[in-house]
Amino acid sequence: MTRPVNKPITLAALLCAGVLLSCDWYEKNTVQSIDGPVPAGARIKFFNFGVGSPSVNFYAGSRKMTAVVSTTGRESPNGVAYGGVGAGGFYTALEAGQYTLSGKIADTASVDHDLAISNLTTMLEEGKSYSFYQSGTYTPKTVGAFIVEDAFGPQIDYSGASVRLVNAIFNANPLVLYATKAAPPDSGMVFTIGAAVAYKGAGAFTALAGGVYDLAARYVDSTANKLSRTGVSFLAGRVYTITARGDITVAPNTTACPATSRTCLDNTANR
Fold first, then answer.
1. Is 53 within 8 Å of 82 (Cβ atoms)?
2. What single-letter DSSP state applies at residue 114?
3. Phi-psi label, residue 218: left if phi above 0, alpha if psi -120 to 50, beta otherwise
4. Coil, helix or strand for 241?
5. Which end of the chain is least crowded, N or C, by CB within 10 Å?
6. Is 181 within 8 Å of 161 (Cβ atoms)?
7. Is the dihedral of CA 124, 49, 218, 200 positive or negative?
8. Where does the chain hold its CATH 2.60.40.1120 domain(s)?
């Protein structure tokens, strides 16, 4: 006489065997998790400082890295205008590797829409930050470009600010940046921000006490200001890049950076 009690045991054994087979299939046919730190990738900031350049969208290879949203919520045909910084001044992230970075004409009504006017092939390394600049002058359908590493380090120094100079003026000699304290304490004291910086170069980040400063960029061994800007605030714990841009033969602007070829000192926070 067959005992009914054996049926649940047989079914249970079959179910267990099915589970084991399923587990074995899963382990052989799926990607397994490996414990460890998640790769940080690279970060990059995009500047359209090419004198006379049209508005562009910036790309890394075929990947669009920046775009402007219109009031309708759709992508604007305006892109990043001359004097602008992509992604609202923030860094955008992507995997480390070699890329061709480019600025492509954003105007959807133009016959040159999506034409690359700048191209630069470079290697972006894991965990590093960079700034890509369109620079020089816009001649028919082309403009220069260069990239610098933003080596401000992972640690935040809350005792002061960090400031550097980038020289994006195609027809300027090497420039030295000076910061004069505009208010007490130390009112009137002059601080040298790094060494002379040639076109397409970036100076080292230099520690500076938080406060309001008047800035001046001069040629080496000269006391005459080639560019200046008054009332610039640097907050402790923050990192800043001062970029000299424009055409050195055009009269400078001393209070802000206009959307023209006039030379000026752009102030953009890195962190």
1. yes
2. T
3. beta
4. strand
5. N
6. no
7. positive
8. 152-271
Q: How far apart are alpha carbons 163 and 138 in whole angstroms?
A: 29
Domain 152-271 classified CATH 2.60.40.1120? yes
pLDDT, block means (10 residues), the chain with 271 residues: 40 40 38 42 97 96 84 75 93 96 94 96 97 95 98 91 98 97 91 97 96 96 94 96 95 79 92 94
DSSP H helices in the chain? 6-29
Roughly how many angstroms between the first and final C-alpha of the chain, as a whole number? 82
Q: Which residues contact 173 (CB under 8 A, 6 or more apart)?
A: 198, 219, 220
Which residues partner with 211 through β-bridges?
234
* CA–CA distances in Å: residue 155 to residues 41, 94, 151, 232, 271: 18, 22, 11, 24, 11
- How crowded is residue 4: how many other Cβ atoms within 10 Å of its Cβ? 7
CATH (residue range 38-150): 2.60.40
Longest CA–CA span in the chain (Å) reads 112
How many Å apart are CA 241 and CA 229, to the nearest integer? 14
Here the tokens at position 85 are 């910084």
